């Protein structure tokens, strides 16, 4: 693996600290357990803890919500519901002018699994979670829609009546003359792709402490929020306070974010209101199930993309049709995912004609927001799959198609058809270097060799322009020019930095960059040390933010890869500004012109007479100790704050051209994969990733960003999916279901660099953190498509999916392996099984026992009470556990088709804080020759909510276990017990459940683990 | 072990990083919550609370355990070691910690505590652990920032240094400017 050599400084001829891989100043604390993450911070003794009741339904009306029992529990301080939220706050501002209201809590209905319904505030989290179970809530389920294309159908369930349907935005754009280009082109080649839902879920979840000061009617929030701080305005408006009465602070350390911690702002509103209601500070730490289910997700998108192509592979026009699924609510800053790439929809290619249709649709899924790569994975998956298809269709080498279309090296700065201004690049050099140094020829030889031997091997490419430093005005492209004119222009990207001197000459730096592990403090120390001629270890950097005290603006925060390009550059400008003032001071003291001074080695001296010098610390202390000696014209050198916004980030033009980002890096990936024929497993054999991120400020950290983003992308390509059932049940609620890659799944990519410094940023740097999330999923997909010779590849490329793409029968299972289970019927988490039990008692006795509420209460596992509603309807309260999820349910059972004492049909529905279920079972009783009873049963059920999200894999086993316990108890109750070996038989999955042991040792063991009651 | 009652707190006494500590815990209190919020040892982090991510990994009586799958009352009388106990001194890092720093084997540092505990235990038991063994042990942890490669490099580097000089145990700390 190679990292870039240090680049020469743009601003100074002598080599500095910038460009070198210094050890990070952050690390010593983090390695020794002295981090200061949100949940590590001290809180006052008055602080309470919150837990959130969340919807188990994807779409339902709330029929009844009664929190009185929860409020009355010991330790509970307050319960927040939509009534209080609506009384104390305003809806969250929606980015698109659309007739829909977005509250941070469900009001009359729930629209996605995990949507908050109530917040309990209690003395500790355990008590708060106990109280969630005491909330009585009834839902009337509504039909749900999870597929964005289906959501557009006339008969689809509507989420927000005000919209009249589920389409929240529909805009078309036209640049150049796409119709003419398609008319005259030799070929029209198109592709439709469906990009799935996923998120680079951080290992630290959301966390916050909120407080309300009634005297000032102000809120104070400490949260591991990541920005952008435009969201501060959204929170303040929702809380109905001016911005100066919402003090938002971030902790020093944050356990990863990758965009995701932008999505916590609706919960900030909720917890601020909960603190107001409780009259005490409230702390909330999200758990992993909540995070995976309902924090935030990247958008899923359906893209139909067509290209007008000449015979030689030259693309003359693109026609985009993007259908963006933002989930149940359009939350700020959405539909930003769709528009962040608007200026670079033509990628790295010189394409002058462009047609775009962008539609935004709402569905019964978690609302979306920022995520590493933000909009890039969706766009480049379509564009680079299409480029590969063009090559396949025309019988060309994909490299030839890429080469034919790349923007020429001499064309920078290059204005794209849709208004993007690419700052710098030499794509040809990057491509040819990648092919040569990345061993492309050898890779092709290997592919030929493997294929000749009958193996499956493919090569994929991805060519990506990686935008960074977002234009705060790009989202307004979703509005028409007339709407924009009315709303006023939005543009720019203010970065802030402060460099200050203390009375003994120490230098401190403050930025509003809110890092989550990107080493900002180290790079800023290097930057400022270089300006002032000091050692980086002498510079103290504060990168957390306090909106009440610090210089910040709406663009503050850590997103859009803006640190190296914007924040570090602004710190450089602030340091240079301070240095200029110090130089004027020193000039007077040393009696040389300021221009003739150099700052180095902790001294300031005349360049030609180094002995004529003053120690930096002494000079720096002057304005504190002897301000009267400083001439007014020189200015006091104490503290310099610089706000910097690049002039290139202008508002969208009336004809919808927008420069959506300031910097545009370049990536060229080459991927070789082998596909295992029997299993469908994709093995990444070789991965080369070429980057041009402008000037490299810290090679070690640039490499860290690339390999980290690459690992995230391997997850998105092969393993991770926020999967939903067709009924909207969320199916990936644990790390055993949402498969974040481990070391075994992540190969080491080979990293190559070329450098074309950005002329638009103070240090020549561009963003580098997100590119591989844009390039790697499609590079892998292209390689798999090449290996299998197929077009329609859907991520994640799990073995089952890849196997299904192979047009050949599966090889037989190895000898001794049980045959595979038949597929379950479609649905969320379906549960089905059959079995039998034997009893010593006669059928009538068993029948009577089964239908008697008093005995049922005694024998149903986990049963608290059974109420007989009528001769054929029963209501039971039971506690059941499946894997890690244990909770109390209300179960209503109706009996039908009663043939005493021979058969009965049971129709049951269950609901509880942890989920829902509905199903039907059939029981048949027959007398045995010995005077006992043989009971046969079958059942089929669907489950939703938490149980479906995290317990899915355990459900069948748990059901068998509970049924086994039930029949064992039934046998005891009816007299004579169960007959040997007659407990339960297999469910649908393994067809061979153990019999007696379920009620014996294993049963006890599983009970201990919380499975069963 | 005293008889536990669901609604009563019990005093749990154990040794944490060489010092005796005690605290009150309900029977259902997780060891991770107990360490962090009762004892105040916040170096151990909680990432999933279902045993997959590995961030909360600690050593109990010398063996590795997920503190999110362990109840506080289970460590009564035990010896517990956490990330706070790995460094040989306040301004010094262990060989493994120093290697992490050198190789940029951490970014946000949230999962790092658990990874250090697992790799420290591996290198204690198998100072000459090879790449395959390191990856096997690291496979029990999730890291979202690093892509794992730098962690493997750091562990291999530490293994090499430790097997060259098994008595080393720790490395001098560089000044970090972050006191």
UniProtKB/TrEMBL annotation, chain A:
Extent of Low complexity compositional bias: 815-833
Database matches in InterPro entries: Ald_Oxase/Xan_DH_a/b, Ald_Oxase/Xan_DH_a/b_sf, Ald_Oxase/xanthine_DH-like, AldOxase/xan_DH_MoCoBD1, AldOxase/xan_DH_MoCoBD2, AldOxase/xan_DH_Mopterin-bd_sf, CO_DH_gsu, START-like_dom_sf
CDD domains associated with the record: CoxG
Chain residue ranges for the region called Disordered: 1-20, 807-837
Domain of life: Bacteria
Molecular function per GO: iron ion binding; oxidoreductase activity
Domain called Aldehyde oxidase/xanthine dehydrogenase a/b hammerhead: residue spans: 32-143
Swiss-Prot/TrEMBL keywords: Molybdenum, Oxidoreductase
Keyword presence, Oxidoreductase: yes
Pfam families: Ald_Xan_dh_C, COXG, MoCoBD_1, MoCoBD_2
UniProt-recorded name of the protein: Xanthine dehydrogenase, molybdenum binding subunit apoprotein
Species of the source: Tistlia consotensis USBA 355
From TrEMBL, chain B:
Record domain 2Fe-2S ferredoxin-type: where: 10-86
InterPro entries the record matches: 2Fe-2S-bd, 2Fe-2S-bd_dom_sf, 2Fe-2S_ferredoxin-like_sf, 2Fe-2S_ferredoxin-type, 2Fe2S_fd_BS, Beta-grasp_dom_sf, Diverse_Oxidoreductases
Keyword Oxidoreductase in record: yes
UniProt-listed SUPFAM superfamilies: 2Fe-2S ferredoxin-like, CO dehydrogenase ISP C-domain like
GO molecular function: 2 iron, 2 sulfur cluster binding; metal ion binding; oxidoreductase activity
Keyword terms of this UniProt record: 2Fe-2S, Iron, Iron-sulfur, Metal-binding, Oxidoreductase
Name of this protein: 2-furoyl-CoA dehydrogenase 2Fe-2S iron sulfur subunit
Species assigned in the record: Tistlia consotensis USBA 355
